């Protein structure tokens, strides 16, 4: 009896030690925020780039990781980044919202220290001041489960991020002036996927395999409807929660929301379109051309 109890306490002690032992990993990011020319709708615009990229770099992390993100503001105005969906446990000083976080002055840097404590899922970051979001500065955040935590679906053959949303040809200062003047924003000029309009994104897939698509609506004014021609989508995650797995032909994604779906490439080899359209608007914008869902077979 006593021996058994000792063994139990030993096991418990070992378990406790393995739990307290070892800090969660750190991931370091060095970002430089600049203006730069972008042409998402075919006309030159002054975009907000992070390390020269539009959209900005993707944050790839695992539950509990510490994210140390040093942001240098090379714009000529104050800048702040907010981490949509990152819970900021016991801490409101890093959330990048004006009021709890001071703007980063032009020519200066700030280091965000975040921990994605107990979180999983798909999110995005975006600028939170001065309507900068209308010029870019957003990017995806992916939080994978730790290897010891079971995920309620088999590992997909690929994991794609889709940052979709409406877009204006007017720049962020002009759009802000419209709002500040007490008016509604006009109807958007187009829809973008991953910072591109009609000149194309291609996701290449292998026939028979299943892929995860993490879709966020990073737009300013409109809900979007997302679908993949000829394919069903299995909803598996909504903003960090594994959901009941329902099958959909199309999904409505409202502003700021992020969903994950699994799509199996189970149709005959050819190009399929990813289609995004505006929802609940009297006019409807459809984005479908030039976003190919390519089977790798047809590349040969
Ligand atoms: C940021 O990028 C700009 C433009 O490329 C460059 O001039 C500047 O030195 C960079 N700043 C930092 C801190 O990397
Ligand atoms: C700004 O960057 C420098 C050099 O990388 C670093 O030493 C400093 O801690 C940063 N300051 C802030 C407030 O993040
Ligand atoms: C936005 O465009 C207006 C002209 O329509 C221009 O005066 C202004 O400087 C531009 N703002 C930025 C940040 O480029």
TrEMBL record:
Single GO MF descriptor: oxidoreductase activity
Signal peptide stretch: 1-22
Superkingdom, taxonomy of origin: Eukaryota
InterPro entries named in the record: Cu-oxidase-like_N, Cu-oxidase_2nd, Cu-oxidase_fam, Cupredoxin, CuRO_1_AAO-like
Entry-linked SUPFAM superfamilies: Cupredoxins
Keywords, ordered alphabetically: Signal
Segments forming domain Plastocyanin-like: 32-146, 159-282
CDD domains: CuRO_1_AAO_like_1 (cd13846)
Family designation: Belongs to the multicopper oxidase family.
Protein name: L-ascorbate oxidase-like protein
């Amino acid at each position: 009896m006593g021996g058994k109890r000792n063994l139990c306490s030993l096991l418990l002690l070992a378990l406790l030690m393995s739990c307290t032992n070892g800090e969660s990993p750190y991931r370091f990011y060095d970002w430089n925020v600049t203006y730069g020319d972008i042409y998402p709708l075919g006309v030159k615009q002054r975009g907000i780039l992070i390390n020269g990229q539009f959209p900005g770099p993707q944050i790839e992390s695992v539950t509990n990781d510490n994210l140390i993100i040093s942001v240098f503001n090379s714009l000529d105005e104050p800048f702040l980044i907010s981490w949509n969906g990152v819970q900021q446990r016991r801490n409101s000083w890093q959330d990048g919202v004006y009021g709890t976080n001071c703007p980063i002055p032009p020519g200066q840097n700030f280091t965000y220290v975040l921990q994605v404590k107990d979180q999983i899922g798909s999110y995005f970051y975006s600028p939170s001041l001065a309507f900068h979001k209308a010029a870019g500065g957003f990017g995806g955040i992916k939080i994978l489960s730790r290897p010891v935590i079971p995920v309620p679906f088999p590992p997909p053959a690929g994991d794609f991020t889709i940052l979709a949303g409406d877009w204006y040809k007017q720049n962020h200062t002009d759009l802000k002036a419209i709002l500040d003047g007490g008016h509604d924003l006009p109807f958007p000029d187009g829809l973008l996927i991953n910072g591109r309009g009609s000149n194309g994104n291609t996701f290449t897939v292998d026939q028979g395999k299943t892929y995860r698509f993490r879709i966020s609506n990073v737009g300013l004014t409109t809900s979007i409807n997302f679908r993949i021609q000829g394919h069903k989508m299995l909803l598996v995650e909504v903003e960090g929660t594994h959901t009941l797995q329902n099958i959909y032909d199309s999904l409505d994604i409202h502003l700021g929301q992020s969903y994950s779906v699994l799509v199996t490439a189970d149709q005959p080899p050819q190009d399929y379109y990813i289609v995004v359209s505006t929802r609940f608007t009297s006019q409807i914008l459809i984005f479908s051309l030039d976003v190919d869902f390519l089977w790798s077979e047809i590349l040969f």
